[in-house]
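Saturday, quiet lab. Running sequence design on the structure tokens for the scaffold JK sent over.
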């Protein structure tokens, strides 16, 4: 695998509606990652997602406030059924949580 080939990987980017977060989301998608675009404004996330899709990428847009633990949990559950991966066919968001921590605050 080349260092810039992220095919089959998933990236969740917070603060992705503008600035550095947006740039990171676009770059990771260009490298082949499925990109989950999150921020406080769903409509702005959808705009970034449309840029990703227009460039041939795959991703999802979610409104998420990273300061609210319950929103993080709910967002991970919404993403769980959408992410495509060969590594964890039954538990598709498995690598979104740190090893040994299957959820925020646990």
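Result came back. Writing it out in full:
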């Amino acid at each position: 695998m080349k260092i810039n080939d992220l095919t089959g990987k998933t990236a969740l980017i917070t603060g992705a509606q503008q600035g550095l977060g947006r740039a990171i989301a676009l770059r990771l998608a260009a490298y082949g990652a499925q990109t989950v675009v999150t921020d406080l404004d769903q409509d702005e996330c959808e705009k970034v997602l449309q840029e990703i899709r227009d460039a041939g990428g795959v991703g999802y847009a979610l409104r998420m406030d990273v300061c609210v633990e319950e929103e993080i949990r709910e967002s991970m559950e919404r993403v769980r059924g959408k992410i495509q991966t060969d590594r964890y066919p039954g538990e598709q968001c498995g690598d979104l949580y740190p090893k040994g921590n299957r959820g925020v605050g646990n």
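Notes for JK: Residues 42-54 form the longest helix (13 residues). Helices lie at 19-30, 42-54, 69-80. Ask whether to fix the surface positions before the next round.
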